[in-house]
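task queued by scheduler; priority normal; single chain, no ligands, no partner chains; default sampling; output format set to C-alpha coordinates
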Amino acid sequence: MKALPDRAKDYVTRVLRAPGDVDARAWNELLARSGGSPFMRHEYLAALHESGSATADTGWDAHFLTLWHGDELQAACALYFKDHSYGEYVFDWAWANAYEQHGVRYYPKGLTAVPFTPVPGPRLLARDGAARAALVAEVLTLCRRNKLSSFHLLFGNEDDIAACAAHGLMLRHTVQFHWTNAGWTDFDAFLASLAQEKRKKIRQERRKVAEAGVTFRALEGKAIATTDWDFFYRCYERTYLEHGNAPYLTRDFFRRMAATMPENWLLFVAERNGKRIASSLIGIADGVAYGRYWGALERVDSLHFEACYYQPLAWCIANGYRSFEGGAQGEHKMARALLPVKTSSAHWLAHPAFADAVEKFLAREGKGVESYLQHLQERTPFRRED
Protein backbone atom coordinates (compact mmCIF):
# COMPACT_ATOMS: atom_id res chain seq x y z
CA MET A 1 0.00 0.00 0.00
CA LYS A 2 1.31 3.43 -0.95
CA ALA A 3 2.33 5.93 1.72
CA LEU A 4 -0.04 8.84 2.17
CA PRO A 5 1.03 12.46 1.59
CA ASP A 6 2.28 14.29 4.68
CA ARG A 7 -0.80 16.46 4.61
CA ALA A 8 -2.97 13.38 5.29
CA LYS A 9 -1.54 13.25 8.80
CA ASP A 10 -3.44 16.46 9.58
CA TYR A 11 -6.89 15.06 8.77
CA VAL A 12 -9.32 14.49 11.61
CA THR A 13 -11.57 11.50 10.95
CA ARG A 14 -15.15 11.40 12.17
CA VAL A 15 -17.58 8.54 11.65
CA LEU A 16 -21.21 9.67 11.61
CA ARG A 17 -24.00 7.14 11.95
CA ALA A 18 -26.73 8.75 9.85
CA PRO A 19 -26.99 11.16 6.91
CA GLY A 20 -28.71 13.64 9.19
CA ASP A 21 -25.50 13.90 11.22
CA VAL A 22 -23.64 15.14 8.13
CA ASP A 23 -23.86 18.80 7.14
CA ALA A 24 -25.95 18.79 3.96
CA ARG A 25 -24.35 21.90 2.44
CA ALA A 26 -20.80 20.65 3.03
CA TRP A 27 -21.66 17.21 1.60
CA ASN A 28 -23.29 18.61 -1.53
CA GLU A 29 -20.42 21.02 -2.07
CA LEU A 30 -17.95 18.11 -2.02
CA LEU A 31 -20.24 16.21 -4.39
CA ALA A 32 -20.24 19.11 -6.86
CA ARG A 33 -16.44 19.18 -6.76
CA SER A 34 -16.34 15.42 -7.35
CA GLY A 35 -18.50 15.35 -10.48
CA GLY A 36 -22.05 15.55 -9.16
CA SER A 37 -24.88 13.01 -9.20
CA PRO A 38 -28.49 13.38 -8.06
CA PHE A 39 -28.25 9.96 -6.40
CA MET A 40 -25.37 10.99 -4.17
CA ARG A 41 -27.01 14.17 -2.99
CA HIS A 42 -27.45 14.48 0.75
CA GLU A 43 -31.21 14.71 0.24
CA TYR A 44 -31.32 11.39 -1.61
CA LEU A 45 -29.24 9.48 0.94
CA ALA A 46 -31.15 11.06 3.81
CA ALA A 47 -34.46 10.06 2.26
CA LEU A 48 -33.27 6.46 1.92
CA HIS A 49 -32.36 6.42 5.61
CA GLU A 50 -35.18 8.44 7.12
CA SER A 51 -37.87 6.61 5.15
CA GLY A 52 -36.70 3.29 6.56
CA SER A 53 -35.61 2.03 3.14
CA ALA A 54 -31.87 1.76 3.87
CA THR A 55 -31.22 1.41 7.60
CA ALA A 56 -29.53 -1.02 9.94
CA ASP A 57 -32.87 -2.82 10.24
CA THR A 58 -32.86 -3.50 6.48
CA GLY A 59 -29.19 -4.47 6.43
CA TRP A 60 -27.67 -1.04 5.61
CA ASP A 61 -25.81 0.00 8.78
CA ALA A 62 -24.54 3.50 7.96
CA HIS A 63 -21.05 4.75 8.87
CA PHE A 64 -20.54 8.04 7.04
CA LEU A 65 -16.79 8.50 7.02
CA THR A 66 -15.68 12.14 6.99
CA LEU A 67 -12.22 13.78 6.93
CA TRP A 68 -11.74 17.30 8.25
CA HIS A 69 -9.22 20.12 8.36
CA GLY A 70 -10.50 22.25 11.20
CA ASP A 71 -14.13 23.04 10.39
CA GLU A 72 -13.76 22.28 6.68
CA LEU A 73 -14.93 18.96 5.28
CA GLN A 74 -12.18 17.59 3.03
CA ALA A 75 -13.51 14.16 2.03
CA ALA A 76 -16.47 11.91 2.77
CA CYS A 77 -18.16 8.71 1.70
CA ALA A 78 -21.23 6.69 2.55
CA LEU A 79 -19.94 3.44 4.04
CA TYR A 80 -22.41 0.73 4.97
CA PHE A 81 -21.82 -2.38 7.02
CA LYS A 82 -23.88 -5.05 5.23
CA ASP A 83 -25.10 -8.43 6.44
CA HIS A 84 -26.39 -9.40 2.98
CA SER A 85 -25.75 -8.52 -0.68
CA TYR A 86 -29.23 -7.39 -1.76
CA GLY A 87 -29.75 -4.08 -3.54
CA GLU A 88 -26.19 -3.81 -4.90
CA TYR A 89 -26.23 -5.03 -8.57
CA VAL A 90 -22.58 -6.13 -8.56
CA PHE A 91 -23.03 -9.70 -7.52
CA ASP A 92 -20.77 -11.34 -4.94
CA TRP A 93 -23.09 -14.13 -3.81
CA ALA A 94 -20.61 -16.73 -5.11
CA TRP A 95 -17.87 -15.18 -2.96
CA ALA A 96 -20.13 -15.31 0.09
CA ASN A 97 -21.01 -18.96 -0.63
CA ALA A 98 -17.33 -19.87 -0.99
CA TYR A 99 -16.59 -18.31 2.40
CA GLU A 100 -19.46 -20.21 3.99
CA GLN A 101 -18.38 -23.51 2.46
CA HIS A 102 -14.95 -23.05 4.01
CA GLY A 103 -16.33 -22.04 7.40
CA VAL A 104 -15.22 -18.42 7.05
CA ARG A 105 -17.47 -15.45 7.84
CA TYR A 106 -18.25 -13.15 4.87
CA TYR A 107 -20.82 -10.89 6.53
CA PRO A 108 -20.70 -8.22 7.72
CA LYS A 109 -18.82 -6.58 4.87
CA GLY A 110 -18.13 -2.93 4.05
CA LEU A 111 -19.84 -1.26 1.09
CA THR A 112 -19.58 2.18 -0.46
CA ALA A 113 -22.45 2.52 -2.90
CA VAL A 114 -25.85 4.15 -3.29
CA PRO A 115 -28.43 1.70 -1.94
CA PHE A 116 -30.60 0.13 -4.64
CA THR A 117 -29.17 2.50 -7.28
CA PRO A 118 -26.78 1.07 -9.90
CA VAL A 119 -25.98 4.44 -11.45
CA PRO A 120 -22.27 5.21 -12.06
CA GLY A 121 -20.96 8.34 -10.37
CA PRO A 122 -18.71 9.67 -7.60
CA ARG A 123 -18.55 7.62 -4.42
CA LEU A 124 -15.46 9.13 -2.74
CA LEU A 125 -16.22 12.81 -2.35
CA ALA A 126 -13.05 14.87 -1.96
CA ARG A 127 -11.59 18.33 -2.43
CA ASP A 128 -8.50 16.93 -4.14
CA GLY A 129 -6.57 13.77 -4.88
CA ALA A 130 -4.71 13.79 -1.57
CA ALA A 131 -7.96 13.89 0.39
CA ARG A 132 -9.42 11.09 -1.74
CA ALA A 133 -6.34 8.93 -1.14
CA ALA A 134 -6.56 9.55 2.59
CA LEU A 135 -10.25 8.64 2.53
CA VAL A 136 -9.53 5.25 0.93
CA ALA A 137 -6.90 4.55 3.58
CA GLU A 138 -9.30 5.49 6.37
CA VAL A 139 -12.05 3.28 4.91
CA LEU A 140 -9.72 0.29 4.94
CA THR A 141 -8.57 1.10 8.47
CA LEU A 142 -12.17 1.23 9.65
CA CYS A 143 -12.96 -2.07 7.94
CA ARG A 144 -9.97 -3.76 9.58
CA ARG A 145 -10.78 -2.26 12.97
CA ASN A 146 -14.32 -3.64 12.79
CA LYS A 147 -13.07 -7.01 11.51
CA LEU A 148 -15.11 -6.80 8.31
CA SER A 149 -14.41 -9.50 5.74
CA SER A 150 -14.11 -7.08 2.85
CA PHE A 151 -14.75 -3.68 1.33
CA HIS A 152 -16.52 -3.00 -1.96
CA LEU A 153 -16.92 0.29 -3.85
CA LEU A 154 -19.55 -0.03 -6.57
CA PHE A 155 -20.15 1.96 -9.76
CA GLY A 156 -17.45 4.51 -8.99
CA ASN A 157 -16.18 7.19 -11.35
CA GLU A 158 -12.66 7.31 -12.78
CA ASP A 159 -11.19 9.21 -9.82
CA ASP A 160 -12.66 6.72 -7.35
CA ILE A 161 -11.40 3.69 -9.25
CA ALA A 162 -7.92 5.20 -9.68
CA ALA A 163 -7.68 6.00 -5.96
CA CYS A 164 -8.75 2.47 -5.04
CA ALA A 165 -6.34 0.88 -7.51
CA ALA A 166 -3.49 2.97 -6.06
CA HIS A 167 -4.23 1.37 -2.68
CA GLY A 168 -4.11 -2.13 -4.12
CA LEU A 169 -7.83 -2.82 -4.40
CA MET A 170 -8.91 -5.30 -7.06
CA LEU A 171 -10.99 -3.96 -9.95
CA ARG A 172 -14.08 -5.55 -11.41
CA HIS A 173 -15.98 -4.52 -14.53
CA THR A 174 -19.58 -4.99 -15.59
CA VAL A 175 -21.64 -3.80 -18.56
CA GLN A 176 -24.52 -1.36 -18.70
CA PHE A 177 -26.40 0.09 -21.65
CA HIS A 178 -26.65 3.84 -22.24
CA TRP A 179 -28.18 5.93 -25.04
CA THR A 180 -26.41 9.00 -26.41
CA ASN A 181 -28.21 11.80 -28.23
CA ALA A 182 -26.61 12.48 -31.60
CA GLY A 183 -28.55 15.71 -32.03
CA TRP A 184 -31.67 14.22 -33.61
CA THR A 185 -34.48 16.68 -34.24
CA ASP A 186 -37.24 14.25 -33.29
CA PHE A 187 -37.95 10.58 -32.66
CA ASP A 188 -38.48 9.87 -36.36
CA ALA A 189 -35.02 11.24 -37.13
CA PHE A 190 -33.62 8.96 -34.44
CA LEU A 191 -35.45 5.98 -35.95
CA ALA A 192 -34.05 6.83 -39.38
CA SER A 193 -30.53 6.36 -38.02
CA LEU A 194 -31.22 2.75 -37.05
CA ALA A 195 -30.82 -0.38 -39.12
CA GLN A 196 -34.00 -1.33 -40.96
CA GLU A 197 -34.67 -4.39 -38.78
CA LYS A 198 -34.41 -2.39 -35.53
CA ARG A 199 -36.46 0.48 -36.94
CA LYS A 200 -39.22 -1.91 -38.02
CA LYS A 201 -39.33 -3.63 -34.62
CA ILE A 202 -39.63 -0.37 -32.70
CA ARG A 203 -42.43 0.85 -34.95
CA GLN A 204 -44.27 -2.43 -34.49
CA GLU A 205 -43.97 -2.23 -30.72
CA ARG A 206 -45.15 1.36 -30.60
CA ARG A 207 -48.04 0.56 -32.92
CA LYS A 208 -49.24 -2.24 -30.61
CA VAL A 209 -49.42 0.19 -27.70
CA ALA A 210 -51.18 2.88 -29.73
CA GLU A 211 -53.68 0.42 -31.21
CA ALA A 212 -54.48 -0.78 -27.69
CA GLY A 213 -55.70 2.76 -27.03
CA VAL A 214 -52.88 3.70 -24.65
CA THR A 215 -51.74 7.32 -24.41
CA PHE A 216 -49.10 8.95 -22.21
CA ARG A 217 -48.74 12.08 -20.13
CA ALA A 218 -45.36 13.37 -18.98
CA LEU A 219 -45.22 15.13 -15.61
CA GLU A 220 -42.09 16.90 -14.45
CA GLY A 221 -40.94 18.20 -11.09
CA LYS A 222 -43.56 19.93 -8.99
CA ALA A 223 -46.20 19.13 -11.62
CA ILE A 224 -46.16 15.57 -10.20
CA ALA A 225 -49.00 15.75 -7.69
CA THR A 226 -49.34 13.61 -4.57
CA THR A 227 -52.03 11.56 -6.30
CA ASP A 228 -49.60 10.92 -9.17
CA TRP A 229 -46.92 9.74 -6.74
CA ASP A 230 -49.52 7.52 -5.06
CA PHE A 231 -50.47 5.96 -8.39
CA PHE A 232 -46.83 5.46 -9.34
CA TYR A 233 -46.16 3.68 -6.06
CA ARG A 234 -49.09 1.32 -6.62
CA CYS A 235 -47.53 0.37 -9.96
CA TYR A 236 -44.02 0.08 -8.55
CA GLU A 237 -45.11 -2.00 -5.55
CA ARG A 238 -47.23 -4.33 -7.67
CA THR A 239 -44.34 -5.07 -10.02
CA TYR A 240 -42.15 -6.15 -7.10
CA LEU A 241 -44.90 -8.22 -5.50
CA GLU A 242 -45.62 -9.98 -8.80
CA HIS A 243 -42.00 -11.15 -8.74
CA GLY A 244 -42.38 -12.42 -5.19
CA ASN A 245 -40.52 -9.61 -3.42
CA ALA A 246 -41.43 -6.63 -1.31
CA PRO A 247 -40.21 -3.33 -2.81
CA TYR A 248 -36.92 -1.96 -1.53
CA LEU A 249 -38.22 1.62 -1.33
CA THR A 250 -41.07 2.79 0.87
CA ARG A 251 -43.81 5.21 -0.12
CA ASP A 252 -42.27 7.66 2.35
CA PHE A 253 -39.02 7.67 0.35
CA PHE A 254 -40.83 9.03 -2.70
CA ARG A 255 -42.75 11.49 -0.52
CA ARG A 256 -39.39 12.87 0.59
CA MET A 257 -38.16 12.99 -3.02
CA ALA A 258 -41.20 15.06 -3.96
CA ALA A 259 -40.45 17.45 -1.11
CA THR A 260 -36.65 17.79 -1.39
CA MET A 261 -35.68 16.89 -4.99
CA PRO A 262 -38.76 17.46 -7.19
CA GLU A 263 -36.65 18.92 -10.02
CA ASN A 264 -34.90 15.57 -10.45
CA TRP A 265 -37.96 13.50 -11.39
CA LEU A 266 -39.97 12.90 -14.54
CA LEU A 267 -43.07 10.69 -14.46
CA PHE A 268 -44.75 9.09 -17.47
CA VAL A 269 -48.34 8.00 -16.87
CA ALA A 270 -50.04 5.60 -19.31
CA GLU A 271 -53.81 5.88 -19.71
CA ARG A 272 -56.48 3.90 -21.53
CA ASN A 273 -60.16 4.80 -21.74
CA GLY A 274 -59.61 7.56 -19.21
CA LYS A 275 -58.05 5.16 -16.71
CA ARG A 276 -54.41 5.18 -15.56
CA ILE A 277 -52.85 1.77 -16.11
CA ALA A 278 -49.05 2.14 -15.85
CA SER A 279 -46.22 4.53 -15.06
CA SER A 280 -42.47 4.90 -15.31
CA LEU A 281 -40.28 7.17 -13.20
CA ILE A 282 -37.15 8.75 -14.68
CA GLY A 283 -34.40 10.61 -12.84
CA ILE A 284 -33.15 13.78 -14.56
CA ALA A 285 -30.20 16.06 -13.88
CA ASP A 286 -27.73 18.15 -15.88
CA GLY A 287 -28.80 16.87 -19.30
CA VAL A 288 -28.80 13.20 -18.32
CA ALA A 289 -31.89 11.01 -17.81
CA TYR A 290 -31.85 7.83 -15.74
CA GLY A 291 -34.33 4.98 -16.14
CA ARG A 292 -35.33 4.01 -12.61
CA TYR A 293 -38.70 2.38 -11.83
CA TRP A 294 -41.82 1.22 -13.59
CA GLY A 295 -45.00 -0.75 -12.99
CA ALA A 296 -48.34 -1.61 -14.60
CA LEU A 297 -51.80 -2.49 -13.36
CA GLU A 298 -52.89 -3.95 -16.71
CA ARG A 299 -51.01 -6.00 -19.28
CA VAL A 300 -50.57 -4.51 -22.75
CA ASP A 301 -48.18 -5.97 -25.30
CA SER A 302 -44.98 -3.84 -25.56
CA LEU A 303 -46.17 -1.38 -22.90
CA HIS A 304 -42.96 -1.83 -20.91
CA PHE A 305 -40.81 -0.81 -23.89
CA GLU A 306 -42.98 2.23 -24.60
CA ALA A 307 -43.04 3.42 -20.99
CA CYS A 308 -39.42 2.72 -20.13
CA TYR A 309 -37.60 3.47 -23.41
CA TYR A 310 -39.53 5.11 -26.22
CA GLN A 311 -41.35 7.76 -24.19
CA PRO A 312 -38.17 8.73 -22.27
CA LEU A 313 -36.03 8.78 -25.44
CA ALA A 314 -38.57 10.96 -27.27
CA TRP A 315 -38.63 13.29 -24.25
CA CYS A 316 -34.81 13.43 -24.15
CA ILE A 317 -34.67 14.36 -27.85
CA ALA A 318 -37.38 17.00 -27.48
CA ASN A 319 -35.67 18.53 -24.42
CA GLY A 320 -32.07 18.37 -25.64
CA TYR A 321 -30.86 15.83 -23.10
CA ARG A 322 -27.54 14.31 -24.07
CA SER A 323 -27.93 10.79 -22.67
CA PHE A 324 -30.23 8.23 -21.13
CA GLU A 325 -28.93 5.53 -18.78
CA GLY A 326 -31.05 2.42 -18.83
CA GLY A 327 -29.98 0.91 -15.51
CA ALA A 328 -28.33 -2.40 -14.69
CA GLN A 329 -27.91 -5.19 -17.23
CA GLY A 330 -30.30 -5.89 -20.09
CA GLU A 331 -28.74 -6.80 -23.43
CA HIS A 332 -32.20 -6.38 -24.98
CA LYS A 333 -31.69 -2.62 -24.56
CA MET A 334 -29.34 -2.63 -27.54
CA ALA A 335 -32.34 -3.16 -29.83
CA ARG A 336 -33.54 0.24 -28.53
CA ALA A 337 -30.16 1.88 -29.36
CA LEU A 338 -28.75 1.79 -25.83
CA LEU A 339 -25.10 0.89 -26.35
CA PRO A 340 -22.77 -1.04 -24.02
CA VAL A 341 -20.52 0.83 -21.62
CA LYS A 342 -18.14 -0.55 -19.01
CA THR A 343 -18.76 0.22 -15.36
CA SER A 344 -16.24 -0.41 -12.61
CA SER A 345 -16.05 -1.40 -8.96
CA ALA A 346 -13.19 -1.96 -6.53
CA HIS A 347 -12.78 -4.70 -3.93
CA TRP A 348 -10.61 -5.50 -0.93
CA LEU A 349 -10.72 -8.82 0.91
CA ALA A 350 -9.08 -9.26 4.29
CA HIS A 351 -8.49 -13.01 3.96
CA PRO A 352 -5.23 -13.48 1.97
CA ALA A 353 -6.13 -16.83 0.42
CA PHE A 354 -9.57 -15.68 -0.68
CA ALA A 355 -8.14 -12.39 -1.94
CA ASP A 356 -5.71 -14.34 -4.11
CA ALA A 357 -8.48 -16.59 -5.44
CA VAL A 358 -10.76 -13.63 -6.21
CA GLU A 359 -7.94 -11.76 -7.93
CA LYS A 360 -7.40 -14.72 -10.27
CA PHE A 361 -11.14 -14.99 -10.86
CA LEU A 362 -11.41 -11.27 -11.69
CA ALA A 363 -8.55 -11.56 -14.18
CA ARG A 364 -10.46 -14.29 -16.03
CA GLU A 365 -13.77 -12.50 -15.69
CA GLY A 366 -12.22 -9.26 -16.95
CA LYS A 367 -11.06 -10.92 -20.15
CA GLY A 368 -14.57 -12.26 -20.63
CA VAL A 369 -16.08 -8.81 -20.12
CA GLU A 370 -13.72 -7.28 -22.69
CA SER A 371 -14.60 -10.00 -25.18
CA TYR A 372 -18.30 -9.50 -24.47
CA LEU A 373 -17.99 -5.74 -24.99
CA GLN A 374 -16.22 -6.24 -28.29
CA HIS A 375 -18.91 -8.68 -29.39
CA LEU A 376 -21.66 -6.24 -28.46
CA GLN A 377 -19.97 -3.31 -30.18
CA GLU A 378 -19.92 -5.29 -33.41
CA ARG A 379 -23.70 -5.64 -33.19
CA THR A 380 -24.52 -1.96 -33.58
CA PRO A 381 -28.24 -1.21 -34.01
CA PHE A 382 -27.40 1.77 -36.22
CA ARG A 383 -27.25 1.77 -40.00
CA ARG A 384 -23.88 0.96 -41.43
CA GLU A 385 -22.66 3.40 -44.02
CA ASP A 386 -21.64 1.75 -47.30
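post-processing summary
- The first helix runs from residue 24 to 33.
- The longest strand covers residues 72-82.
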